[in-house]
Amino acid sequence: MADTAQLDLDTDRIKQWRSIVALIIFVVANLVVLFPFHIPIWIPQRPVNAAFAVLARLRVLSPRQEKRQRQVAQVQALAFERWNFPMDFVTAPLIADLFLLAIGAIGRTEVHDGTVGANHIAPIDIMVFFLSLAYIALSIDASGLIRWLACRVLRKGGKHGYRLYFYLYTFFFVMACFVGNDPIVLSGTAFLSYMSKASRNITNATAWIFAQFTVANIGSAVLVSSNPTNLVLAGAFSVRFIVFTINVIVPVLGTIILLFPCLLWLLFRKDGLIPHEIELEELPENIKNAEPVNPNIPQEYHKRLTPEEQSALAISTVLNPYLDKKSAIVGVIIMSATLITILVMNATSSNGHEHPVFWVTLPAAVLMLSWDLCFGWIHRHETRQIAVNSSNLGSTSRKIGGSEDEADHANDHESVLDLTADVEKSGLSEESIDEQADTGQKSPKASHDAVSGKSPRRDHSQTPSKEVVLEKIAVQIEDPTDISDPKPGMAATMKSCEQRTLHSETIRGWKWLRRTFPASSVVMTHLPFKLVPFALCMFVLVQALVTKGWVAVFAYGWDHWVDRTGVVGAIGGMGFLSIVLCNFAGTNIGTAILLCRVVQSWVEIHEQNGLPISNRRFSATVYSMAIGLNYGAFSTAFSASLAGLLWRSILDRMGIHVRSRDFALVNIPIIAIATIIALVILVGQIYITRDTEAYVPSM
């Protein structure tokens, strides 16, 4: 539990050079989070080669083959090798903390209060709670329940475009209220990408993907457990979870109801964005009636499919989704029981005697993990056989219906990939290879611009129809064992020549885990572990601003603003400030940490002056902050939230590329309309439900 300590309100410390440096480092770290980059580091080749030789000698890495070593040597023409050090939301706050420690700007107190916690904010407790609950939500997603329900919604909407748009809009909002925005971004984004490919007349996915991202973040404002920013806010001011939901549910529902017609008839009214009738591709009967394959099991042959085959396979993923009914039922039961227990425990506990909420979520996550492991072990023979059949199919997929030139091209491509893998092991970057290699041609990447709707031209005279491609995939899937490896002897020889190393055994072990425990291994890869070092380092940075007097300065500024503008100014000012800072203060999590400390100092100022804050002004500040922190995720920058970064990466993988400029242009009118609706409703709600009596902080 976080200890309660009196906040330091001494503003004279900002004149010290360490305080000035701390503020500059905080700003620079947040700018790096907003605009990540790589720092090139040039290292002499001899130490690098010696290090890799030692690692190969110790059998940590595999020794390079002589032929490939000569090929790599041709690329390594310089005496130095370029290594790229990432500067992003993980490394920048950590380096900033280490620098402040080195110059003595922060010490043990700041590190302790920024990790263990202080003043009702316990970062470690919040991270454990969020990760454990995220595992349950992602496990439900891995069972295929969200994709299956989305498919039901798709069939319910039928061919009516507006009705389907409303159904999906409502469905994603309801799901986000319970499981948060991350599972909706993970499953919903891929589903909409596949759906746009499965439709003949949806030429642009903008209206669908932006609406999904918007409602996912709006829905995450309802429950405290749905977003880590809500956890920070509720913990900072000891707000009960049920009280938090009661105060934000009306503005959120008002936003959802009034925003939909604005999206449908105002922002996305252009032809092709939301067609009146949607024409979906038809699946062949053998695929339509086939048993869907678990997407969590690695499918090797997917990597060798042509773009047309991948598009056709995406259609089958949308119209014939996989569902693990038993795991879905268990996940829903565990999630429901966990949320109900948290709400009851939080509502019945007395002030000052609350138990950490991760006492409930951590055992529930362990229970869900145990189910996934046991279920995977029981069905290990089935999942391994599916993976083996996929590997056999992938090794010969180019032989089916393809020419010898295509097979030769695939083999050449594989050799290039192998060379690239060796070069990466040697420490060379792609930039250095491009600069030094004069041979080779770059193949243009086929991409799709989500906003402009432009896609590369294709030669339809040589491109098979989707029906033909689907039939070919169906033949491959139905009987993969009939296709034999054309060169089994060569594969066996290469396999026998491989030297077992720590690297190869790690890869082998990971493949074994993916095939034996597909659900739990996929969930582990999707868990936001990078959030932990980022959040803890940001807590320490904000704590540095607290001890150096900057948070007190911000608190005095906020006090003057509220005194001049009243309740309406508090709601409008905090809502606008939190949304803007989400884009410039290290995502909405960094903004939540900073603003909570500012408001805590604001309350402390009034307590020391003997002029308590009214309930109306305090509630206006806190709940407008809650709305701004959740709504700010869909504002002007992808880095406004970690969900935004995840959303962009999934779209890029699906071939839908959203530029930063287009992201801002589309979201600005959406965030403006949504924020105005929510804050106007909140103003009326605060005046009706809150009085002007003094606010008494919970201890």
From TrEMBL:
Ranges where the record places region Disordered: 392-413, 427-466
Residues that span the membrane, as ranges: 20-43, 89-106, 126-146, 166-193, 205-224, 244-268, 328-345, 357-378, 531-556, 576-599, 620-647, 667-689
Database matches in Pfam families: CitMHS (PF03600)
Keyword Cell cycle: no
Subcellular location field: Cell membrane
Membrane topology value: Multi-pass membrane protein
Main location, first listed in the record: membrane
Keywords in alphabetical order: Cell membrane, Membrane, Transmembrane, Transmembrane helix, Transport
InterPro entries: Cit_transptr-like_dom (IPR004680)
Organism name: Cercospora beticola (Sugarbeet leaf spot fungus)
GO CC term (a single one): plasma membrane
GO annotation, biological process: transmembrane transport
Keyword DNA repair included in the entry's annotation: no
Domain Citrate transporter-like: 121-367
Record's protein name: Citrate transporter-like domain-containing protein
